[in-house]
Amino acid sequence: MGHLLDGRWVTEAIDTKASGGKFERAAAQFRNWITPDGAPGPSGAGGFAAASGRYHLYVSYACPWAHRTLIFRSLKGLSDHIAVSAVHPDMLDEGWSFDDDFAGATGDALFNSGHAHDLYTRADPAYSGRATVPILWDKEQATIVSNESAEIIRMFNSAFDRITGNDLDFWPEALREEIEVVNTRIYDTLNNGVYRAGFASTQDAYEDAVYPLFDTLDWLEDRLSRNRFLIGDTLTEADWRLFTTLIRFDPVYHLHFKCNRRRIVDYPNLWAYTRALYQVPGIAETVKLDHIVRHYHYSHESINPNRIVPINPILDYDAPHGRGTSQIT
Ligand SMILES: N[C@@H](CCC(=O)N[C@@H](CS)C(=O)NCC(=O)O)C(=O)O
């Protein structure tokens, strides 16, 4: 893994020494918003009006943050309006590559770039920082609109509604405060908590991540024994943000990131809820377990130096879930 420094690629492993063994995730730097009419959003510049075919989404099928954006693209009927390029699951010395010798890896459909970092320097020749996915690219201004998944899913939730006629709302005004509270706990202890456990380089940093992580899973199991979704009966972005971590948990985080106190299949409600979300129309196609399992085990040399990719646990995501029929078919 590496990063860009003034537009040049520098190879280096994640350094957790300065932070006492703790893994700290850097904030995304491109924070513009697509809006229905191109008015500025909550951050960044204006000029990014919703339009069919104008924007391109770069993802990794392995990445839980990019996965959120694929889910919203699918649920919000954006597949015909926003095309996708997917990187190769192996993230090696030059970061994400556009090699296409793995089923589902597409290459870069716009520029035929070699690596994701080429897109960052195309947008900003002096960029310094990580070259992460997802990347939402604007073909008109030839730049990155956003590389922050939490914001891309909110754009997808509403900015294109007039174009698609799809007005499903996963961030309803009346529930926003509650969604924020749930999102914050899930992000800190679970979405990012698994990385904090896995990339910790001291016993203390590992334990500081892993105990709160399982406290949160217990809290969720209880919540989901009483509620169909995280926020009562309404399927919201909070559920989808949780889902991308749950689906990776047993095949990857349990073993590779040492989050091994329990598996998701050991929690009856969480496991049924994971299957219920998986079975929502349009979701299964966004889940590529071969990319997920390959990526983590093959890419993180510091954790798995021999790059042995484990065989998968046997899990049936299509088994009946008993949590009611999908509300959004
Ligand atoms: N804040 C970003 C985080 C994205 C992120 O960290 N993506 C990872 C893949 S799971 C990545 O591209 N890492 C490459 C790197 O850090 O060099 C988001 O949610 O969009």
TrEMBL record:
SUPFAM superfamilies: GST C-terminal domain-like, Thioredoxin-like. It comes from the Bacteria. GO terms for cellular component: cytoplasm. GO terms for molecular function: glutathione transferase activity. The record marks 253, 296 as: Lowers pKa of active site Cys. Glutathione binds at residues 96, 130-133, 148-149. The active site is at residues 63, 195. Residues 172-296 form the GST C-terminal domain. Keywords: Transferase. CDD domains: GST_C_Omega_like. This is Putative glutathione S-transferase. It comes from Shimia aestuarii.
